[in-house]
């Protein structure tokens, strides 16, 4: 019997969703989102602020951030300046969460070159990758392999956490509140109750979530509940069990919120 190296568990990209670059104005701000695939955001010009789960980061040119699947994230221009970003989103089932969220890009020409290769060989609809262009299948495959290599090199070279400057007190408040929400998904809480238990004023609490999440506190809390409910459904819970576990008093309302957040009804997530 021949000896061999089993590579079935090695990292590889199984789907490319988006690949694009953009320059945004000094007032750029986008509402937060989650999706079930990876996202890499690279700063090519200026500076950006980033929400990643419960953490807040300040990124400068040449720095980048990983967003794991189903991680809430948000970004905005910082320092009153234009900000250039380069984004790749993709599926990679064998990719483990990196030890650090922020990493340094040694040479921005490499990810920009990968983007050029993708756009040359892949049919794009706005930012979305659709299919390889006619007679460009090899070129498209090489572009994806080049992206895989870039990501692997980034993981290998970035073993030390990138230093972050001083973050405002509001960022610490945001992290504290998100931790509180994670620990209380089973409760049916109001803004007033959350503010009281987190020892914050309601106005300050709302402003903090508007700044870092780009959405209202209860909308954010409900989205957290729904993502947790989807995991329960995948593990075999009934719709009623998932609804009650997440503190929803009305199953019909749970189903309405679930479909709004996940885009599909709860029953479609049954294992």
Task: Give structural notes.
The chain is an alpha+beta fold. The chain is 38% helix and 23% strand. It has eight helices and ten strands. The protein has helices spanning 109-121, 137-157, 169-183, 191-197, 202-212, 217-234, 239-245, 251-262; strands spanning 15-24, 38-45, 47-52, 55-60, 63-67, 73-77, 83-91, 102-104, 122-125, 128-132. The strands form three sheets. Strands 1-7-2-5-8 form a five-stranded antiparallel β-sheet, with helices on one face. The protein has a three-stranded antiparallel β-sheet with strand order 4-3-6, covered by helices on one side. Strand 3 and strand 4 (55-60) form a beta hairpin. Helix 1 (109-121) runs antiparallel to helix 2 (137-157), helix 6 packs across helix 7 (239-245) and helix 6 (217-234) packs across helix 8. The longest helix has 21 residues, at 137-157. The protein is globular and about 55 Å long. It starts with 14 loop residues before the first strand and ends in a 9-residue tail after the last helix. The relative contact order is 0.12. The model has no long low-confidence stretch (mean pLDDT 92).
Query: Over all CA atoms, what is the radius of gyration?
Result: 21 Å
Ranges with pLDDT <50 over ≥5 residues? Answer: none
Number of helices: 8
Oligomer: single chain
